[in-house]
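<instruction>
Derive structure tokens from the sequence
<data>
Labelled lines for chain and fold
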Amino acid sequence: MSRVEDFLTSEEETAIVAAIRTAEKNTSGEVRVHLEAKSISAEKPRKQIDAFDRAAEVFDMLNMQNTKESNGVLIYVAVEDRTLVIMGDKGINDIVGQNFWEGTKDVIIGHFKNGAMKQGLVEGILKAGEKLKKHFPYRKDDKNELPDDISVG
């Protein structure tokens, strides 16, 4: 099961969106999930690029830098490449250490290795929300600045 279309069922997608909404109740941070088959450059179609570079392209494409506190988080998965990148915006990266996302990544990958894609993403998203809560707590006037749906490329 490596094709993007087969990666998650519609029920699993619904559970992931629910996890994003739950995570965002704890933090002013914004979480997005993006799935695609391979890390292919938007500028040079058919050219495979490093997953981190592709995640940066997707981050920009999804306008994730447009949050008030620069606290967007992208969970990027290239399904066929079997790669995962968690990318935080400048507001997060200026505050947290370089290995801030390692524990979250480990949770997701641990489930992925057991074929539990939905569970990996759900637990990773919830963990990301908890980690962000310390630096970016939810406030009463907080607005949902980015869509909660899963984007697919």
Summary: Helices lie at 4-7, 10-23, 51-61, 90-93, 102-113, 117-135. The radius of gyration is 15 Å. The chain has a mean pLDDT of 93. The first strand starts at residue 30 and ends at 36.
